[in-house]
Amino acid sequence: MSLNQRILSRDTPGGRVPRKKRNALDLAFAVYHRLTQPSGDAILTLLSPGPRTSQPATFPSRVATLLLTASLATTPLLAQQPGLAPTRAQHAMVACVQRDACDVGVAILKQGGNAVDAAVAVGFALAVTYPFAGNLGGGGFMLIRDKHGRSHFLDYREKAPAAATRDMYLDAQGNIVPGRSLVGYLASGVPGSVAGLTYAQSHFGKLTLAEDMAPAIKLATEGFVLSAPEATMLQTRNVARYPISAHIYQRDGNFYKEGETFRQPLLAATLTAISKDPTTFYKGAMAKQIAAFEKAGGGLITANDLAAYEVKDRTPIKGRYRGFDVITSPPPSSGGIILVEILNILSGYDLNHLGGIPTPDRSTAQVHIITEAFRRAYKDRSDYLGDPDFNTLPLKQMANKKYAAAWRSSIDPAKPTLSASLVRPAGFMPPPPDAAPHQESTETTHFSIVDKDGNAVSSTTTLNGGFGSGVTVEGLGFLMNNEMDDFTSKIGVPNMFGLIQSSANAIAPGKRPLSAMTPTIVTTHGHWYRRGKLSLVLGSPGGSTIITTVASDLISIIDNHLNIQQAADAPRFHHQYLPDRLDLEKKFPVPPAEELKAMGYTINRLAVADEKNPGVWGDSELIAIDPKTHELLGGHDSRRSFGKAAGY
Ligand code: DON
Questions:
Q1: I want to staple 266 with a disulfide (CB 3.0 to 4.6 A). Which of 346, 477, 611, 647 is the partner?
Q2: What is the pLDDT of residues 348-371, one digit of tens each?
């Protein structure tokens, strides 16, 4: 039996992985485990180049390797913070990055709206109170699961304008023009948010559009009080470049301060017009105004592009993990299929007891195994994914459990596989299209909602970068996205984040750029009497880190039994195949970080917090349903101090 097989145990549908019978090596693990607890100092001694007093001298080297692996598993954990408690509610819950938008959602639910009404209201409210990422000029995804178990994935991702071309961000020499896909008019795709939110309301809401939009209009008209971090966010250089934006968000240089009320009368008028006639944005007076503004600024979006925009109601991706059904995001999100691939690989391990030893949340051994699953799944993401309306994607093959098992058997329990040496298991996947680089930015927002009837919404929306392209539409008061940057700009050129994707994601007219946004809902699987019970609503922003954040949250809750607030606050780790490095948040505990480094990982610890490197990423907005009491448990990521989970 290989080393790997010793750590592997079989996936069991519908429950936790059974402990295998212990053999001599497992006993050695256990003895060593006791020796090294509780301080973990012995582990560091073992890893240090000096005399290894704590390693039993008589063990053969293979056993020593196993012991090393076991010792790595036992590091005391900082992630499972005991003080963190979920927000509790009896009927309904909203978890959202911005407190006023969260309150809007709760008010709509109390008013008799369902989860979709609340989502529409929160979506529009975020366009007012969180211009960083909430939007009218961007796009998003909304995963809906109703109380009967029917699910819909609303895709209102931006589309490339008809005049977009594959090489539009290259100069005459074929080099990428820095910033062209990120800043200014040319960076924008045709916005989808207004279409998506109004589609959701008209197909799945209970209240009227005017009722769902009233709170956002009020917030724009009367304003909301800025907290210190919100006031600071408005000072970004992204909007200072454009006078209309600088006027609205920065008062022409007289920056807003903490405690001041931020009012947006133009945006209020725009929202009012949409609430009266939502077709105005795509086919009416507003569409003409947007198109004229784009033309004057050298943008590509025309009235025809706006008129041609359509929401797609897609079938979600479905996976299964340890007795739960995972309902998640299909392409053009890469999130769902990569999440399922990660979970399929991990389902062969007893993550909480690798090698038969307790390996809690953020322990070295667990982080190692999960990271190796991330690495493998992201390799597939790099090579295969793009807009499903423009490509035939090998989704079935990617979700194949035998393929996951083959990936699993390539994981060395004691050390990382270098990405450069990672070989895809043969016989499962078609040849990939040409690999191509891709840049993915990091400002988006997620919210989760459950109503009193058990309808659930998980929605992620984005302008792509913070404040999108920086361009505010004149007279309408909303920012345009820079989502075009999510396309592949040029084959073979590494981007800012080093994220690699295939030519399946090349720019083409009418095409949607590949996304990582991963709205996800988890329900119980199993015997008929427990099947289909709503368990979790998950999601986060964070660009390429979204998928690993959602996967980590899910594992923290399902495998490691963290409560929903502990999961939201657990320090994050991320690997995306290329660049070959393990990103760790600044609060990631030091001992496992050191041990992972000693195992051979290149560690990128985001230790310093500044504008470019906040030391953290993502924003988990989570809801769980207590299976016994049916109480709703909310988890809001405390990295974002201005949001909350709230309910009634
Ligand atoms: O769709 C995507 O994957 C990116 N445009 C999302 C960007 C993002 O998450 C930024 N988050 N903080």
A1: 477
A2: 999 999 999 999 999 999 999 999
Could you confirm whether 602 is annotated as catalytic? no
State the Cα torsion 545-496-183-539 to the nearest 10°: 0
The span from the CA of 645 to the CA of 632, in Å, is: 10
Dihedral (Cα; 91, 96, 102, 108), 10-degree rounding:
-50
Q: Residue 343: CB within 6 Å of ligand 1?
A: no
What does 426-453 look like in DSSP terms, one character per residue? TTSSPPP--EEE-----EEEEEEEE-TT
Beta bridge partners of 139: 462
Is the backbone peptide bond immediately before 332 cis, with ω within 30 degrees of 0? yes
User: Residue 349 pairs with which residues in a beta bridge?
Assistant: 8
Best residue among 440, 484, 572 to mutate for probing ligand 1's pocket (most ligand atoms within 8 Å of CB) is 440
Count Cα atoms within 13 angstroms, Cβ side, for 359: 28
Q: Pick the catalytic residue: 198, 444, 520, 523?
A: 444
Residues 6+ apart with CB under 8 A from 214: 275
Q: Is the CB of 542 under 6 A from ligand 1?
A: yes
Q: How much distance in Å is there from the Cα of 83 to the middle of ligand 1? A: 31
Contact 522, 533 (CB under 8 A): no
Token duo for residue 299:
């943008």
Taking only the tens place, the pLDDT of each residue in 590-621 is 999 999 999 999 999 875 555 555 678 999 99
Cis? peptide before 579, omega within 30° of 0: yes
What is the Cα–Cα distance from 400 to 428, expressed in whole angstroms?
Answer: 8
Q: What is the 61 CA–ligand 1 centroid distance (Å)? A: 46
Model confidence, pTM: 0.88
Residue of the CA atom closest to atom 2 of ligand 1: 515
- Which residue type does 487 have? F
